[in-house]
Amino acid sequence: MRPISSQQITAVILAGGRSSRMNTQDKGLIQLNQKPLIQYVIEAIENEVSNILINANRNQEIYQKFVKNPVIKDNTTDFQGPLAGLAKAMEIVTTPYILMLPCDCPMIGTALLTTLKDQLIEQNAQICVAHDGERLQPTFALLKTNLLESLLTYLAAGDRKISLWYHQHQLSIADLSQYQDFFLNLNTPQDYALLTKKISVENVPILGFSAFGGTEKTTLIIQLITYLKQKNIRLAYLKHNHHNFEINHQGKESYEYYHAGADQVLTSSRNKFSPINRCKNKN
Q1: Is 16 marked as binding a ligand?
Q2: Domains of the chain by range and CATH?
Q3: Phi-psi region at 54: left, alpha or beta (left = phi > 0; alpha = psi -120 to 50)
Q4: Does residue 55 have a known ligand-binding role?
Q5: β-bridge mates for residue 99, sequence order
Q6: Is 15 annotated as a binding residue?
Q7: Is 201 a residue whose pLDDT tops 70?
Q8: pLDDT per residue as tens digits for the range 11-25
């Protein structure tokens, strides 16, 4: 089989669930770092596929703002699960392949689709599903669109379990254990709190300075710290010292950076590590 091109794939993002464990919040529209979850998914795949569809059973007008194609909803009104959204997408798309993704996976990357495509071709499969190293991730899958009749028959029989339908076909399992973060999603408010913390830590910007002595790097860094503090940006300074050192005192760079406004100054050497934290005054 020839490699699968992006023009042969339509992505369908599933946002049609009831979200009962998330207090019925529409998960795709939940804000994470001032951006809705579904926008993370769209940005990760928009250059990897020919078209993007959103399957949503509520808030269709809001979801329509994210894509050019009309938002699609299930043919039923009782939230029958991801296969119902997939079936609706299969009825509409004209590409030979569909990439199915949930709306609440903000950490996915392009390696997901690349791996799914490669494995589907290599195994000559009809469906390729991601595995995170611990369990199958059934809503992260690449499928042939011509499976529509089989899927409609399965749904008409009252079946809903996605993995059972998969195993009725030539199935390939893609090992994505090295990308476990791709599958971090939001099912509960606790998941949201953990993911918010993880993303905030990983997105901390880092600036590095390296120069010979006497090149005025201290002056530059003090000016930069002063400027950033004027913008109400919290920051920390980490200095590596090749020699033994004594803790903060006037005349030392760490002293100057701290008094320029750094919230935290850290100095380290081979045998010492010194953090200086700025504490808020308590009345």
Answers
A1: yes
A2: 6-201 (3.90.550.10), 217-277 (no CATH)
A3: beta
A4: yes
A5: 11, 142
A6: yes
A7: no
A8: 999 987 766 666 778
